[in-house]
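To: structure subgroup
Subject: Chain for Friday's discussion

All,

I'm putting the inputs and outputs inline so they're searchable in the archive.
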Amino acid sequence: MDTVRTETGNDDRNDDLLSELLQPLRLTGVFDSRWHVRTPWAIEGDAEQSCAVLHYIVEGGCWITAEGQPPQELHAGDLAVFPTGTAHRLSDRPGRQGVPLKAVLPERQPGTSGEIRIGGTGPESRLLCAGLHYDASAATGLYKALPWALVLDGSQVDREPLLRDTLRLLAAPDRPIGPGDRLITLRAFEMALVLALRPLLREFAENPASLPVLRHPGVSRALVMIATRFAEPWTIESLAREVGMSRSAFTAAFRALVGEAPARHLTGRRMQEAARLLGETSLPQSAVPERVGYQSAVGFHLAFRKWFGVTPGEYRAGGASAA
């Protein structure tokens, strides 16, 4: 009885928390490739930093495996997303040792495309694969807490027609190329990533137990507060008090579930908003500190430079690309 009431009472909180995950996602570059593979084959992908990885099975099928995880089979129409770029293997069957991805695609610069033809004389599979580079400073604690791989089967993809049609267009061998293609491709993959996450997030909202951070009422509430009320003069003590926990218990639980200390998470959210204000608005630079929760302009300047490696003025003038 108590458990049911808790879950029902947390619906709005979970919706807000899931919105926090989607809102800041913004890709900075994409490398995509079309794979034509025949059995026997296997490719080992390295861990990617600040990069989500996407695999869409156009034809045939494959297995995905990662260290410490059970193998999972994919069929035509299925989509697999690795939100944080966990190292994994793609193969025609579990357990087959593969060649490193960098051996068959040595150059994978964002904004470019590639093609792989590998394997033997057996049945062919075709895949669309992409590395989706994102701004690491905008990755929320909830995003980092997502499972190592998220899989949508073909029927789930079909229930998202815009996702299905976007993937098919991106996978087409005669995909149109012309002026603005790099930006169009970037935004198309960005939309595909968000659309792929949406049904999975809906599942998390209906079943909070499937994502550990959602099971903890204090930590999940704190995440929403940091996401939406970051400009308030929070301290770790006041955050803990607001969610009804002691400072030590709150800090320990937050670090265990989110993967970073609450103070760093709060700073990251403030820096994310500061970068947005500096890069996307004409708000005077002098007004930014207060908008993101800093009472001291000097304190904000030092925090921003430590976080991004450039000053707020340099960031606004174009130094963001160097961060």
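Points worth raising on Friday:
Residues 1-11 have pLDDT under 50 and may be disordered.
The radius of gyration is 21 Å.

D.
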